[in-house]
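User: Some background: our group keeps a shared notebook of sequences we're curious about, and every so often someone picks one and asks for a predicted structure to add to the entry. Today it's my turn. The entry only has the sequence so far, pasted here. Could you supply the structure so I can complete it?
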Amino acid sequence: MVDANSGYSGYGDLYLGHPLQETFGPFPEAVEGSPGTPAPAPQTPPWSPGASAASITAGLLRSQFDEWQKTFMPIELNAMNQISFNNPEILTKAVDEARDMATGSFKSLRGTLDRQNASMGITPTEQQKAVSKRLMNLNEASSIAGAENYARGAVRERDQQILLGTAPNPNIAKV
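Assistant: Of course. Here's the predicted structure to add to the notebook entry:
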């Protein structure tokens, strides 16, 4: 360890858990098991005295990969399972929800228009009912198509955010 008065105070004060790392500054070592501290480093280094540089490098890379597998791989797998091409039900569910919402709002609109006409004593003719129904069906079909396309775009954007690591979704595991 470097002494706190050695002139390095305040530089590189993070403790990463590596057995050869030195901490600089008046900050104590991380307490094992406290929140936010990394897992304890392996006690036996992946190299031995007199080993070649290649074997030391290979051992370090192996230990780094093992640490990555234990620490970050579960988080990445969780995020990858929330992407639509790994889980096609996500896209199907989003499109179905969009279709149901658009259909439900047009059902409400039809009921509202019928009640409004009845309250004012208006009785449309059969031809007026047919024209109104046709226009309502055209509007509903275009609304459903737009809602489904928007849902597909939203799922695609969410997939991109997950892949980039910028997703604000609280369901994605955090480190």
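Suggested note for the entry: Residues 78-164 form one domain. The chain has two domains: 1-44, 78-164.
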